[in-house]
Amino acid sequence: MQLFRRKGMAWVLTLLLGLMLLGCASDLERTKKAAEQGDAIAQDKFGTMYSRGEGVPLDYKQAAAWYSKAAEQGLASAQANLAFMYYKGEGIPKDEVKAYVWLSLAAAQGKSKDAEGARDLVATGLTPEQLNQAKALATELQGKMKKKKP
Fold first, then answer.
1. How many domains does one find in the chain?
2. Are 47 and 67 in contact (CB under 8 A)?
3. 81-104 pLDDT per residue, tens
């Protein structure tokens, strides 16, 4: 009788684990579909999944691509994530000027003190010319993104 209970319990646990995995797969598919349809939050989430190898293979190039799509739509978290990819050179060439640009855009939204602090830290490694270039690029990109918004 106890053997039946153990096997029955194992079957129930296996079933529950299977259902959880199906739920994760369907969450992944929903996120992917939303990301492909242009949802910035889903794109940022998909970037994070690729940057951590959660539910998808670890792939920094894919992470950077998804973060970029969301960042260009003005999502502050994606802008900060993309900046860190540029700063570390993960999936894209290391570029501290671009890291500063994206952190500036994220910080300008006032939603993240972390982005502001990171931007200021990145600035300490830039030459005055690079800093001026980064500030000009951030201003230009910010203007382009405002024009895109309805």
1. 1
2. yes
3. 999 999 999 999 999 999 999 999
